[in-house]
Amino acid sequence: xxxxxxxxxxxxxxxxxxxxxxxxxxxxxxxxxxxxxxxxxxxxxxxxxxxxxxxxxxxxxxxxxxxxxxxxxxxxxxxxxxxxxxxxxxxxxxxxxxxxxxxxxxxxxxxxxxxxxxxxxxxxxxxxxxxxxxxxxxxxxxxxxxxxxxxxxxxxxxxxxxxxxxxxxxxxxxxxxxxxxxxxxxxxxxxxxxxxxxxxxxxxxxxxxxxxxxxxxxxxxxxxxxxxxxxxxxxxxxxxxxxxxxxxxxxxxxxxxxxxxxxxxxxxxxxxxxxxxxxxxxxxxxxxxxxxxxxxxxxxxxxxxxxxxxxxxxxxxxxxxxxxxxxxxxxxxxxxxxxxxxxxxxxxxxxxxxxxxxxxxxxxxxxxx
Length: 369
Prior knowledge:
- This protein is an alpha/beta fold.
- The chain folds into 2 domains: 3-239, Rossmann fold (3-Layer(aba) Sandwich); 243-368, Orthogonal Bundle (N-(1-d-carboxylethyl)-l-norvaline Dehydrogenase, domain 2).
- Helix 8 packs across helix 13 and helix 9 packs across helix 12 (336-346).
- It is built from 13 helices and 14 strands.
- Mean pLDDT is 89; it is low at 6-24.
- Strands 7-4-3-8-9-10-13-14 form an 8-stranded mixed beta sheet. It has a 6-stranded mixed beta sheet with strand order 1-6-5-12-11-2.
């Protein structure tokens, strides 16, 4: 059984780790207000069946900072939970000492989490011999294909696969490897930082908004919403998750690459006219591409949304900044690069996103070579 204890948070400030385990993740955007999904009356009753037969088992594929945060809270809701990560030091620390989630005034110690460093080996754990009921996908977009291929043995016909990843193309990539009827998608506005192996800092607990790919409000969707809320992760459902993904993409396209190229915090973008202009133009191009695709953003004013996102996350370093500092591969191809690729396909000019993609890739190639 998962257990947790509370203890005062250490007085040390958040540390910027320079080693390979450094990982601070920010949601990169603030949650838009969305209308209620208005599910059918019998949908909530049907959602109960997910807990009727046996414990609802959860596996987090990509248990970095954000994935560990979700896994820890979901475990506290009473679900058998497994973390899957190739970060051996982090997995070993969680297995030996539990997962510490640092909050503003206290810290939670979550024990009983199952840890594995490759997806197929989870099936050798008795609790997960049937595979997980929920596979929560939190890997970086550049790793989606490899992670989904490794997860094939875990996915049954009734497994729910929920991606909370940034960028575009994740659903399409997974659909080529996993049953499309298993896949749901969402956006996360939580923030987390991996301070050290086994230790996660909660940098902000925003909404998690989830939806079916076809816009239906299904029993499994409502069950997940209820489970997340019960675990302390505020959740909503949406009939237009594609619109939400694109809305968050607009903020990420405007903020991440610009901040990464300058090596600055989000709030510093507003202090320089040149970086502010780049942010606004990149976001505007993403908006134009979305409209050309027939996608309606979840916010009435995209520029105000991006500006408010910067203000709400002004002290944060975007995940792309952290990737560059840690000399990791970035997600620029799935964010700015994806906007540029879709723009080219639709005949929509995206010169700023093309330029940002080229410059980040050039910087990345220097430190990866």
